[in-house]
Every structure is written in C-alpha cells, then in structure tokens.
Design goal:
By secondary structure, this protein is mainly α. It is about 65% helix and about 0% strand. α12 packs across α14 and α16 packs antiparallel against α19. The longest helix has 25 residues. About 20% of the residues are buried. Pfam families: Myb_DNA-bind_6. This is TTF1 factor. One of its GO terms (cellular component) is nucleolus.
C-alpha cells in the first residue's frame, strides 16, 4: 500500500494513526492491517491499555509453541537475541523462516509492537529483581550522566530491563516528594494545557471548514485520557510522570465534583456500596473488560482513574490474599462479605 492509503485504512482501527511517524505507519500496515481486518470480520475490536490475564496467557502459549517449532532453547534467546551474538544469525534465520511476527501475535487483537513489548517484559529475567538498592540508584544516575537516555546500554550495565531502568530514573531524578507547591501545580496545569492545545490544533487543521475550526471544543475525556505523561513530566521538571498523573486526576476530580467530598462519611459508604454492586452486575472476568467510564457515575462525576484508585484501595483493605484471587473472585468476595457490612454501617 502507498502511505496515504495505509493511513486511511489503519485510521479505522487506530484513530491517532496520522500522528504517528511514516516509518511506524508502514510497519503497522505490513504487520497489522490484515490481522485487524480479520478481527473485524469476527466482530472483535482492537484493544489498547493493560493486557488481560487471558492475553498474557496467550502470549506465553504462542512463545512456547514457537520455541517448540524452531528448537530455539528459551524465550530469552528468542526475544533478546542480541544477548547471544554467537547464535544471533541462526536464531534470526529461524525467526524469519517460521514467521515469528505472525506467530507471536496469534489470537491477540492488538498492534504487533505492543504484543512484542509485552512478551519482552514477561520473559526478561532482568525485569523482576525487586526494589533498587541505594547503590543501584547511584549507579543509575552515574550511567545516565555518561550515556544519556541510551536505556539499552544502561540496562545491560545494570542487569535490569530497559523499561525498569528508564522508569526508575524518571522517578529518582525528581527532587520533590512532598506536598505540591502552588508553582508546581501551575506548571502542571500549563503543561497539560499545552499538550491538549497542540492536539486540538492538529484536529482543527484536519477540519475542512472555517466554522468547524471556530467551534472546536475540547471533549472532557481529552482532559484525562492518553495524555503524554513523560512529556508533561519534562515540562513540570520537579516531579516524575506518575506524580503528575495522580495530581492531575485529583485536580480534575475536585473540579468535576465541584469540591464535594465524594468519598467521606455517609457519601463514602454509599459510593463503596454502589461501586461493589455495579461491578457485581457487570459479570466480567477481567479488570480490563470493565467500563470504568460508565462506573464513574457510581461514585459521582469523576475521572475513571479516580474510580480505579478507589477500587484498588477497597480490594487491598478488604479482601484477604487478594493477589492470589482472580478479578471475579475479588468481586464475589466484596459482594458476599463486605457489602452487607457496609450496608449495615450505612
């Protein structure tokens, strides 16, 4: 396909495709377009966001089958071939011969690149090494001063994954962990405003009529969905991206609820009761299948991240051994054990 046709066809599945680089679009057209069309015929929509347990299991199954098919010794050799220079040529030949790209993505309605990154995260032995020690944090700062954002090189020196070292550096370079100052809050609000204005300008340029440009409004969802938090982190300067996201959600919650204390006292009890009941009625097997937007109404007019955070606190504080339970088991426990207690208290 030529580039314009690829953009047009992919836009049905990836709404933001025109914001991507030409190289990424060409790769996606080659790896994903046929898969996306096949999923559409089955009535399956393309997914983004967190991977479900079912999808993680499918990735593990696909990798296991590919290893069995090719005789490659383990997942690390398959996914981190550069760590094995002596076997690199053989492994790459086998990957090409047995259609690695197609096989790894089988049965998963997501862009190939996201599936590949997820597989690397699951199977990287350097990815689950616990908390960073003081010495490791100092090393990380030193290596970053020398190598900048070359996370691949730094990860090899630290024996940690690329993602792990990048995320940890983002966290430790911040100098402020206390309450937000007025200046920091203003910087955050200006940073979010900048990225939203930039997006809105791009959309306005796509509009054909001058009237459409004049009447362009910002949908409320754009205030809290898929914001580029690492870019916002850079603009704020003194906080890392997760702090920025949490602070922004608290600002939005306060604005949208007009400052009402939605999770205090009697209102808080009612909100928990409503949340448990609505989750139980949904009968979903995985947290990724929950429509958190719709659930916002169970607590009040708030961002979905606020509801997700409240649910997390609820399960951690009320469900024993929640880490070992499936999502549906957690909901059943809350409904059977916690709900009657909350209703009586109310």
């Amino acid at each position: 396909l030529d580039l314009d046709t690829a953009k047009e066809e992919l836009e049905e599945f990836i709404p933001h495709v025109r914001e991507m680089s030409d190289t990424s679009i060409r790769k996606m057209a080659g790896r994903d377009l046929t898969r996306f069309k096949h999923f559409k015929q089955q009535g399956i929509s393309i997914k983004f966001g967190r991977f479900s347990q079912k999808e993680n299991d499918q990735i593990r199954k696909n990798i296991k089958e590919f290893l069995s098919l090719t005789g490659i010794e383990n997942a690390e050799k398959l996914l981190f071939t550069c760590r094995y220079p002596e076997e690199k040529e053989t492994i790459n030949r086998l990957k090409s011969e047995f259609l690695f790209c197609e096989k790894i993505a089988e049965g998963i309605p997501r862009p190939w690149r996201l599936i590949y990154y997820r597989a690397r995260k699951i199977f990287d032995p350097n990815n689950y090494k616990g908390r960073y020690t003081k010495e490791e944090k100092e090393k990380l700062k030193k290596y970053h001063a020398i190598h900048g954002n070359d996370w691949k090189k730094i990860s090899e020196m630290m024996s940690r994954s690329n993602l792990s070292v990048a995320m940890k550096y983002s966290e430790i370079k911040s100098i402020n962990y206390g309450p937000w100052t007025k200046e920091e809050t203003q910087k955050l609000m200006h940073a979010v405003e900048d990225v939203i204005r930039k997006r809105s300008k791009l959309e306005a340029e796509k509009c054909s009529s001058e009237k459409s440009r004049r009447n362009l409004s910002i949908d409320r969802e754009k205030l809290y969905q898929k914001l580029p938090w690492t870019e916002i982190e850079t603009k704020v300067g003194t906080r890392y991206w997760r702090q920025c996201k949490q602070k922004w959600n608290s600002i939005l919650t306060n604005k949208m609820s007009r400052g009402q204390q939605l999770y205090k006292g009697t209102k808080g009890l009612q909100a928990k009761i409503n949340l448990i009941k609505r989750l139980y009625e949904m009968k979903v097997e995985d947290a990724n299948d929950v429509n958190w937007e719709e659930l916002s109404n169970a607590i009040g007019d708030v961002p979905r991240a606020y509801v997700q955070a409240k649910f997390y606190r609820l399960k951690v504080s009320c469900v024993p051994l929640w880490q070992r339970k499936t999502f549906s088991e957690i909901i059943d426990y809350l409904y059977d054990e916690k709900l009657p207690e909350l209703e009586e208290k109310l």
